[in-house]
Every structure is written in C-alpha cells, then in structure tokens.
Amino acid sequence: MARPRVAVRECDPHHSRRGHTSQLRSRVKDPLTATLDWVVMLRPDYIECPLPGRLTERFPLRDEVLSRHREAVAKHQPTYRDPLSGYSVFTAAFLAGRGYCCASGCRHCPYEPMR
C-alpha cells in the first residue's frame, strides 16, 4: 500500500503577517518521517468536490463554476474565471501541486480542513 502524500508546514517566526504568529514554509514529506508543526493531508475527492463551505449547493452559477473548474483542470491551467465575479480562481490541481495549504480560504483547497 502506498503512503499518502502530505504537505508539511514549518513555522518561521521571522515572517509574520496579518496577526498570524508565523508565516509557513512548506515541502512535501513522507508522513512517517514528518516531525514538524503541522501535517496537512490531501482530501481524496479534492479535484471533484470543493469544500462545502466555500462553494455551497445554493451558490449562484454553481454548475457553471464546476464546469469551468473541470475544464481548466483538464487543460492543465492553474486558474479559471469565476462566472459571477470575473476573478481568477485557482484550481484544486494547481493548489495541490504547490504542496501546502496557504490558509487563505481558497474555494478549491485540496487539503483537509484543520481543526
């Protein structure tokens, strides 16, 4: 059985922003050897399902958002245009490829929510 991929984020107290106690540097690491502060797991359904609180069932144009996301992922594009706001939105594939959660509340964050 293959080990799950995880992102490990280590605290750097010299880089703080917006009241956070630390900015985080990241790298992908084996979960059995991870000894740093936080380990963030990729969700198994991260490509197909955005986090429920970030794209609700009642969101206007939800189907269009999901369609644009699927199309951008299939074309290996890092972003797509939100049909309601016109803003660029990162795809789950791009965010997973970065290897860490930035804790900015991304719509398609591929990581398990931290509790």
Could you name the key traits of this structure?
115 residues; alpha+beta; two-stranded antiparallel sheet; globular
Write up what this structure looks like.
17% of the residues lie in helices and 21% in strands. The strands form 2 sheets. It has a 3-stranded antiparallel beta sheet, with no helix packed on it. Strands 4-5 form a two-stranded antiparallel ribbon. The chain has one domain. The protein is an alpha+beta fold and 115 residues long. The model is unreliable at 6-29 and 31-37 (pLDDT under 50).
Number of helices: 2
The Cα radius of gyration reads: 15 Å
Write down how many β-strands occur, each being a DSSP E stretch of 2 or more residues: 5
Name the poorly predicted regions: 6-29, 31-37
Question: Would you tell me the overall average pLDDT?
Answer: 76
**Spatial gap, N to C terminus:** 27 Å
What general outline do the C-alpha atoms trace? Answer: globular
Helical/strand content category: alpha+beta
Biggest β-sheet description: 3 strands, antiparallel
Strand content: 15-25%
* Total discrete domains: 1
Element pattern in H and E: EEEHEEH
